[in-house]
UniProtKB/TrEMBL annotation:
Entry cofactors: Zn(2+)
Swiss-Prot/TrEMBL catalytic activity: a secondary alcohol + NAD(+) = a ketone + NADH + H(+); S-(hydroxymethyl)glutathione + NAD(+) = S-formylglutathione + NADH + H(+); a primary alcohol + NAD(+) = an aldehyde + NADH + H(+); S-(hydroxymethyl)glutathione + NADP(+) = S-formylglutathione + NADPH + H(+)
InterPro entries found in the cross-reference section: ADH-like_C, ADH-like_N, ADH_3, ADH_Zn_CS, ER, GroES-like_sf, NAD(P)-bd_dom_sf
Residue span, Enoyl reductase (ER) domain: 14-371
Alphabetized SUPFAM superfamilies for the sequence: GroES-like, NAD(P)-binding Rossmann-fold domains
Protein name: S-(hydroxymethyl)glutathione dehydrogenase
Organism: Pseudoalteromonas arctica
Function field: Has high formaldehyde dehydrogenase activity in the presence of glutathione and catalyzes the oxidation of normal alcohols in a reaction that is not GSH-dependent. In addition, hemithiolacetals other than those formed from GSH, including omega-thiol fatty acids, also are substrates. Also acts as a S-nitroso-glutathione reductase by catalyzing the NADH-dependent reduction of S-nitrosoglutathione.
EC number(s) stated in the UniProt entry for this protein: 1.1.1.284
GO molecular function per UniProt: alcohol dehydrogenase (NAD+) activity; S-(hydroxymethyl)glutathione dehydrogenase [NAD(P)+] activity; zinc ion binding
Length: 373
């Protein structure tokens, strides 16, 4: 008989339903697995995206959440890289170090556990979460909306115990994603011009990355002008509300920048804005990076001539960061004061209020809500 631990968790019973905070049974970790006591988790737009039913990989009932931090509570047989008491950040992009993807040197998209992860299961094809005996699916391999969660060992970054878990949980997704897309994926250089579409947690982090890289112009674009103050504080040089213009936003940016920006970033998940982001790039060399996640059935389009004439369209997942080998160093840089995380935490609350966090996000009132257990 396997052992279980009781855990408070927010269950997504079905698409478009409020989360239900209940007690679940979590099975102790099997071979190569680790149980983590989550102490804090951010709420990212991707959680809302999946809850909305738009995610082709969305599966219910599930325990969502993927932007967490916590402490190792128990380890399964054969686990060597972490021990009880270690502070960790769960990784929705694992790093096995051995698969074709990890050894390619070209991507952070480890393939070791991705297939089962996308089906809401652990690598052995089963779940560790149960409600009254009914299996509940995992989400993105992390399920940080449960006080106790189980992950493969290769899906954990061990980090400095001196770092505030309430703040570094944001490095489990949003801040690493935005900063990394600019510095790792696009590799923005000193003097480059940058346009960032969408100033939520991801877009604001992209501003931090652009400022770090020494971009000469950082143009922030959002239809919610309440985001502009923080964007300015973080380093945006220009702020644009597309609603103020009666022409396409790409034409506005092209005019502002003598032919277009060197780099643009789509941080919304809107396929029309993705097109604008590509088309505001400079002819001959401008690159546009898609970060936003678009719903099932949605497709991007542009005139192929946009690419023929030298613009480049690409994407970025988790900022191109390899979690186990690179995230601990990002935590150190945060601790050294290279960038702040508390600017992003507009709200904190207990798990029982988690539906308020989703409401605040949909109303455009929060950057990040951090849930604590
Ligand atoms: P968010 O909801 O906090 O921010 C989105 C911002 O976009 C808001 O400020 C909103 O006002 C703005 N916006 C909406 N429509 C707009 C429009 N038409 N023009 C301009 N601005 C508009 O979301 P977030 O947590 O910052 O996430 C942003 C996107 O990034 C989501 O699609 C999320 O799923 C995705 N994401 C991707 C990755 C990745 O690894 N690729 C990681 C995290 C999040
Ligand atoms: N399940 C969706 C795609 C979701 C998606 O693109 N996820 C991003 C991370 S969003 C974090 O907030 C990602 O890293 N993707 C790479 C991967 O391997 O999932 C769909 O369309 O099926
Ligand atoms: Zn996320």
């Amino acid at each position: 008989m396997s052992e279980f631990i009781k855990s408070k968790a927010a269950i997504a019973w079905g698409p478009n339903q409020s989360l239900s905070v209940e007690e679940v049974d979590v099975m102790m970790p099997k071979k190569g697995e680790v149980m983590v006591k989550i102490t804090a988790t951010g709420v990212c737009h991707t959680d809302a995206f999946t809850l909305s039913g738009a995610d082709p990989e969305g599966i219910f009932p599930a325990i969502l959440g993927h932007e967490g931090a916590g402490v190792v509570y128990a380890v399964g047989d054969g686990v060597t890289s972490v021990e009880v008491g270690d502070h960790v950040i769960p990784l929705y992009t694992a790093e096995c170090g051995e698969c074709k993807m990890c050894t390619s040197g070209k991507t952070n998209l480890c393939s070791a556990v991705r297939e089962t992860q996308g089906k809401g299961l652990m690598p052995d094809g089963t779940t560790r979460f149960f409600k009254d005996g009914q299996p509940i699916y995992h989400y993105m391999g992390t399920s940080t909306f449960s006080e106790y969660t189980v992950l493969p060992e290769i899906s954990l970054a061990k980090v400095n115990k001196a770092a505030s878990l309430e703040e570094i949980c944001l490095l489990g997704c949003g801040v690493t994603t935005g900063m990394g897309a600019v510095t790792n994926t696009a590799k923005v250089q000193v003097g480059d011009t940058v346009a960032i579409f969408g100033l939520g947690g991801i877009g604001l982090s992209a501003i931090i990355g652009a400022k770090m890289a020494g971009a000469s112009r950082i143009i922030g674009i959002d239809i919610n002008t309440s985001k502009f103050d923080l964007a300015t504080k973080l380093g945006a040089t220009d702020l644009v509300n597309p609603k103020d213009f009666d022409k396409p936003i790409q034409a506005v940016i092209v005019e502002m920048t003598d032919g277009g920006v060197d780099y643009s970033f789509e941080c919304i998940g809107n396929v029309d804005v993705m097109r604008s982001a590509l088309e505001c790039c400079h002819k001959g060399w401008g690159e546009s990076v898609i970060i936003g996640v678009a719903g099932a059935g949605q497709e991007i389009s542009t005139r192929p001539f946009q690419l023929v004439t030298g613009r480049v369209w690409r994407g970025s997942a988790f900022g191109g960061v390899k979690g186990r080998s690179q995230l601990p160093e990002i935590v150190e840089r945060y601790m050294a004061g290279e960038f702040a995380l508390n600017d992003f935490i507009t709200h904190t609350m207990g798990l029982e209020d988690i539906n308020d966090a989703f409401d605040l996000m949909h109303e455009g009132k929060s950057i990040r809500t951090v849930i604590h257990y």
